[in-house]
Every structure is written in structure tokens, then in C-alpha cells.
Amino acid sequence: MANSQKVYVNQETRELIDKLFLEKISLAGIILVTGVSEKWLQEYVNNKYTKVSQSIQCTKKNQVN
């Protein structure tokens, strides 16, 4: 890669990105707001995804007749 650079994204920006994800903002919107690169954000998302539990716990509700 000709333009490969090591980029540091500070903790404040990472926390903002996490909040924007919770609000279901698109990746393009997050890139626009924060100024991070598309590649960095995709890697960040992929890393977050691997750390999130994929199991869903459900409880059965009592039915009222």
C-alpha cells in the first residue's frame, strides 16, 4: 500500500463512535461526523463485533386467556 499510515484515534472519538452506533447512525454518517477513515472504522466495527456475545436470552411470558 503506497499511502499506508498508522492512524491513532483517541479515546474520546472512540466513545463518540460507540454512542453513534447505539443511535443506529450509518457508517457513512459516522465517518462524516468523526473524520475517521472508512478502513479504520470497518476494522473497529469488525473488532467490536467479535467481542459481542451472539447469544440471545429470552424469557417466556405468562399468557393471559
Structure at a glance:
The protein has 65 residues and is mainly alpha-helical.
Folded structure, characterized:
- With 65 residues, this protein is mainly α.
- It contains three helices and no strands.
- It has helices at 11-22, 27-34, 38-51.
- The longest helix is centred in the last third of the chain and has 14 residues, at 38-51.
Distance between the termini: 65 Å
**In angstroms, what is the radius of gyration?**
17 Å
Task: Report strand %.
Answer: under 5%
Largest sheet: none
Order of helices and strands: HHH
Quickly count the helices. Answer: 3
Uncertain residue ranges: none
List the helices and strands and how they pair.
Elements: H1 11-22, H2 27-34, H3 38-51
Question: Can you tag this structure with a few keywords?
Answer:
3 helices; 65 residues; 0% strand; mainly alpha; elongated
